[in-house]
Amino acid sequence: MTTLLASTRPAPVRVPGAALGLARSVVRLHRSALWFWLLLMVALAATMLWAYGPGYGTASADVQDQCRRDIEACHFPGGPWLSRYSTAVALTTLVVAFLPLLVAAWAGAALVGRELENGTAHLAWTQSVSPARWLAAKLAVPALLVSVGTALLIPLHRLMWDGGENLLWTDWFDAYGFRSNGTVAVAYALCGLAVGVLAGLVTGRTLPALGVAVAVMFAITHLGDQYRPSMWPTVTVTGAASLSLPDKALQLDRGVITDEGVRIGNNMACTTADSSVADLRSCLAHNDLADVWATYHPQSHFWPLQLTETGIVLAVAALAATASFVLLRRRTAASGAAV
Amino acid sequence: MNTGPSLNTGPSLNSGLSLRTGLSLRTGLPWTVLRLHRAALIVWGAFLLAALGTLVWQVEVTADSVREGMSACARTGGLCRRQAVIHYGGGISWASTLVYYSFFAVAAFAGGALVGRELENGTAELAWTQSVSPTSWLAAKLAVPALLLVAGGTVFVLVFRWAWAADRDLMGDDWTFNDVFAARGPALVAYGLCGLGVGALAGVVLRRSLPAVGVACAGMYVVNHNLEEHRGDLWPTAANGLHPESHYWPMHLVETGVVLGVAVVATGAAFFVLRRRTG
């Protein structure tokens, strides 16, 4: 009898293939999302490659041709090819910059919210998959696919973005471009996944989770754009150097220092003086000023800014993922499997 | 099924009961729609109030402080003035941009929560067995939000017209900006109704909430993007090939007509598909 009783509750056996099976079931359940993701990646990659190569080539040749025929066209470049090329660049940048919102919407609604609303999550938890392992699989498999996909898009986007410098005046500090040109793209996408999963767990319903996840990710990316310049120490220069900042610098503020040594920001006095030192000196003396200054980010700050923001956004993602695990554990511990 | 007291069945054995049921059904169905979607109603109401509040606040409070700040930095000009303009105009343009593009949210709501989810869950079929025909079910589902959208949108357009015209010297935009163009007239309301119609059609056709959300938003993007691209072609240009500001109303009304046309076609198609399916 004792052996029989004991055998009714066997110790959980860790089957080697169990983790793999769980991962496979996540992929299988969301195979239409997987196909959509793959198609989106292929379409984006193809458009960006087209824009980088033939798109840029044709548009550039067309603009030069128009310029040769009409001097007006040199100052106001246009034409169907330039418009096609710039649409391809703008559209792909927009999509890559807002992929995190799409990921968040899907994770909140389809990955977690719907499963909790339908009760299929609870069913899974009775099939020898613990809630924590269920959530781990839900996070790990999409995280892998989202990271790999986004990471592959970054170099392609950089190629296209840097190639467009002459025709489209693309800047390294452009908000959407910045979010698509480096490691922050992966960080925001992962953050979207974690925020979506948390929204799904908190609301426990498909459509509210979708709305909340998108709204929160919109706020997070907006905050990132807003506070990006503060994420690495800026460079401040005074005197004639402040009147001719290095090429492609992102100017943040400029102002004057009065004879009393008071520093005034957001002031354009003496900036019209041409950068010859004598001209500047006479303007300063004329206005009772000691010096002029400017604060900026040189282009070399691109990677420090990228990596700092990546770290912060990944920390937010980790926080959201941890909160999801804690929330799920507390709920399932309190009332069995009833979430 | 047909034995119970029903709507519009002429003289029945107990006309008093029939009349009362008819009345309560007629008021009850919209009430159910409101009650079922009260969360959406609250979110939408709060959003609209926040947008209206921002407009009033910018005109009545911020404008004065911005003017004070500008007179203080009169000596430096340039950047100082531009920042004041950004500070003042930013709030107004956020309000008009968000309210204008909220037709995406309307389309997502109509496709997902209003129609798609009900067909996916089977709650729609349940309602149709409770003496509510599929047609009157969809009519109620669309009429109540449509009424709210028209009322709320009209109030917003009137307040925005006042706020936008109040301090033109403090704002850097003009009548051709996408959000300004739409939010100064009935096109704003038309886009909301179009979102409702397109969302309903996506929900009825796909019968699942999430695909309906995606398709409805994509459909609205196609409609809106193409119209924004071709606004200049909606009315013949003046002799110099440009549009003077006096072309605002003709262009705006043509676009309103096109958007309302799409709304009517999509809504009609939604009813047609539903009737054929439930036939």
From TrEMBL, chain A:
Keyword flag Transmembrane: yes
Record has Transmembrane as a keyword: yes
Alphabetized UniProt keyword annotations: Membrane, Transmembrane, Transmembrane helix
Coiled coil start-end: none
Membrane-spanning segments: 34-53, 88-113, 134-156, 176-199, 206-224, 310-328
Protein name: ABC transporter permease
Protein's organism: Streptomyces dioscori
